[in-house]
Amino acid sequence: MQIGFVGLGTMGLPMARNLLRAGHAVRGFDTNPAARAAFAEAGGAPAESAAASARGAEAVVTMLPDDAIVRGVLAGEGGLLAAMAPGSVLVEMSTTGPATKQAMAQAAAAGGITLLDCPVGRTVDHAVAGTLAIMAAGDTAAIERMRPLFDAMGEHVFVCGPVGAASAMKLINNALAAAVNAATIEALVAGNKAGLSLETMFAVFRTTAAWSNALAANLPKKALKRDFKPGFMARLAHKDLGLAIGFAEEVGAEARFARAAHAVLAEALQDGYGAEDSAGSMLRAVERRSGVELPLMEKPPG
Ligand code: NAD
User: Are residues 119 and 199 in the same domain?
Assistant: First the structure.
């Protein structure tokens, strides 16, 4: 397939590389010249603008930082939608609010373009390995047409409903994961202050309703090893939680645990951990306010 790709950053570059590996022709654009150079090195054809990446493309993938940039790149002056051919598909994979995806889908439809709402779960390692969890929403025939792209970039495709549904799914997923991480970190740090060892806490949690994937996998993998490299950057997690809270307000749903996790991430950003991994940044922020540091844990006890 001839594919356009806009946003060749942490996630976008390895995703575009996997499309190339699967045999697709990819023309890619990023405002950062270094990202375009890395893409060219991977065998891609760099384009001089977002609009130019859409030339002859049956599909264009966008993987951009936030709502304002997505709206600008798609519908701003010299934007992608004006350059795409009628009948083509825009696969919008950035994490944005559902309202942005819906507004852009409407703008796309006016030009005969189908927009799919396709945010991704998991991390940069999964983007590199082509094992992302893709949440897909929108026209089901277009989702089927895009299967070869999803198969090249991801391991799972979850069809969620109409445009906006996949972004809602992505936001509640990230809010839940961050809230569980924050609550787990709080418990471990409080236990440490009380003189409990990680061995004791893990042994008890393992047998009760406190056990979760945060304890089984996520925190031992990096944060408890005191490995703070991203992963998933704290400032992006903070952005996602802000979106999740905004979305909950829009639909009249509760967001008190999302707010609590958002507040911990805000403290982590204040402390200067914004470019570190999100779970580790929360650990450091909670430790700092509690005046303790958990001991290094090379692997989960038990
Ligand atoms: P990133 O900042 O590394 O990459 C974004 C890229 O977009 C950058 O290379 C930047 O130069 C480029 N860009 C910015 N404005 C542009 C414009 N106007 N035109 C063209 N290119 C432009 O971010 P990322 O980590 O790759 O994340 C991208 C999206 O994926 C975000 O919405 C993020 O929340 C989401 N996400 C990230 C992860 C993760 O683990 N990093 C996981 C899941 C989802």
Answer: no
Q: Are residues 130 and 191 in the same domain?
A: no
For residue 224, give the nearest of 250, 252, 189, 275 by alpha carbon: 189
Evaluate whether residue 297 is within a structural domain: no
Residue ranges making up the domain that contains 36: 2-162
* Backbone φ, ψ for residue 195 (5° rounding): 90, 10
Residue with the smallest CA separation from ligand 1 atom 8 is 9
- Those residues whose C-beta lies under 8 Å from the C-beta of residue 106, and which sit 6 or more positions away, are none
The 10s digit of each residue's pLDDT in 113-170 is: 999 999 999 988 999 999 999 999 999 999 999 999 999 999 999 999 999 999 999 9
CA distances to 115, 139, 227 from 106, rounded to whole Å, are: 8, 13, 43
User: Does a structural domain hold residue 195?
Assistant: yes
Each residue of 34-91: pLDDT tens digit? 999 999 999 999 999 999 999 999 999 999 999 999 999 999 998 999 999 999 999 9
Closest atom of ligand 1 relative to the 96 alpha carbon: 32
In a domain, 300, yes or no: no
Asked whether the whole model's pTM tops 0.90, one would answer: yes
174 within domain boundaries: yes
Q: Kindly state whether residues 146 and 195 are assigned to the same domain.
A: no
Regarding the beta carbon of 90 and ligand 1, being less than 6 Å apart is answered no
Q: Ligand 1 centroid to 270 CA: how many Å?
A: 22
Cα–Cα distance, 198 to 201 (Å, whole number): 5
Domain boundary among 131, 162, 193: 162
Known active-site residue 221: no
